[in-house]
Write a structure and sequence with these properties.
The mean pLDDT is about 95. Helix content is about 25%, strand content about 25%. The radius of gyration is 20 Å and the shape is globular. By secondary structure, it is of the alpha+beta class. It is built from six helices and 20 strands. The strands form seven sheets. A five-stranded antiparallel beta sheet has the order 6-7-15-11-12. The protein has a four-stranded mixed beta sheet with strand order 1-2-5-3, with no helix packed on it. The structure holds flavin-adenine dinucleotide. The site of flavin-adenine dinucleotide has 31 residues, from β3, α3, β9 and β15.
């Protein structure tokens, strides 16, 4: 267990006891022992080189698919959102995007450049790194269908170039070389018409806000869709719309969303998830699997 870090001069910012509720879209989560905001990829590599080998690491983008428990995180969180923020066109059809760039920015950039294929990203409220980790997708589009190669950093701060074929990719699931995290991706797109692409981005955003509870803090779909069915349908049919635990409620607008009505704790969200799983299994005989990633320590009341 690490006590103090002997860090050489770095250009990023190291925070301690940083409240994770500030960095997740659910607005819940206890403090991270250490929270590093890198200046760029080289700075992050240097930071990682100086960490003890056994330091637990958690990478975070926009925290839009994360439930951080109330007891917080032992170890170091690496923040990327808006920090690893480069986007550049490489040639006729390829674009390099760093992992902290928001998906919306990638969609806008590609449309402006007349590059088609990334429009679905316009409504995903996460970073490119999160989209790679989750194989995020919607409206028929999927992140890894666009990936040609990725750049990763390992626990020791060593940079790797990986091909898309080095990863096994499925529905909201990606596995590849262990203990490596994404710092950039090369996307391969098709040529398209700028104004048609910009209208498509706008249309997809509008379709989304009419069907999802965008007013209250949430983390999108909580459970993965089971084969040949929809988690939202099963939850609604089990009579769970509007069911609450503490400040966490199953959304009235979209049954696979759990919203924070104001004062929810991570424990409320997790308890409500368990309740939903039990009830859906009782009624339909299907065990729902979480899509959101749950990390961190239980709070004192639960310990
Ligand atoms: C309103 C709403 C709507 C949503 N709609 C959709 C949707 O239509 N389709 C969809 O797929 N998802 C959707 N989501 C879920 C979420 O936006 C996506 O999963 C998104 O890709 C997560 O990105 P993030 O940057 O927020 O990742 P985070 O939530 O910060 O992290 C998610 C996971 O990715 C890992 N990770 C993050 N960055 C990196 C990195 N650089 N390298 C390696 N691992 C990393 C984290 O450790 C964590 O395990 C929605 C969420 C919300 C709140």
């Amino acid at each position: 267990m690490m006590t103090a870090l002997q860090i050489k001069p770095l250009r990023g910012t190291l925070l301690t006891n940083e409240l994770m509720a500030r960095h997740t879209t659910w607005r819940v989560g206890g403090p991270a022992e250490r929270y590093y905001q890198p200046a760029d990829i080289d700075d992050l590599a240097l930071f990682l080189q100086q960490l003890p080998e056994d330091e637990p690491l958690y990478w975070i983008g926009l925290g839009s698919n994360l439930l951080v428990r109330d007891g917080g995180i032992r170890g170091t969180v690496i923040a990327t959102s808006g920090l690893l923020n480069g986007v550049e066109r490489l040639d006729e059809t390829r674009v390099r995007v760093e992992s902290g760039v928001s998906c919306a920015k990638v969609a806008r950039f590609c449309a402006r450049e007349g590059l088609a294929g990334a429009e679905f990203l316009s409504g995903i409220p996460g970073t490119m790194g999160g989209a790679l980790a989750m194989n995020a997708g919607c409206f028929g589009g999927e992140t890894w269908k666009l990936v040609e190669s990725v750049e990763t950093l390992d626990h020791c701060g060593k940079l790797h170039q990986r091909k898309a074929s080095d990863y096994v990719v499925g529905y909201r699931q990606v596995s590849g070389p262990a203990n490596e995290w994404f710092v950039a991706v090369c996307l391969k797109l098709q040529k398209g018409d700028v104004s048609a692409l910009q209208s498509r981005n706008k249309e997809l955003l509008e379709r989304r806000s009419s069907s999802q509870p965008t007013q209250l803090p949430n983390a999108g779909s909580v459970f993965r869709n089971p084969e040949n069915d929809y988690a939202a349908r099963l939850i609604e049919a089990a009579g769970l719309k509007g069911r609450c635990v503490g400040g966490a409620c199953v959304s009235e607008k979209h049954a696979n969303f759990i919203v924070n009505t104001g004062k929810a704790q991570a424990a409320d969200v997790e308890e409500l998830m368990t309740l939903v799983q039990k009830k859906v299994e009782q009624v339909h005989g299907v065990r729902l699997k979480p899509e959101v990633h749950i990390i961190g320590e239980h709070g004192e009341e639960q310990a």
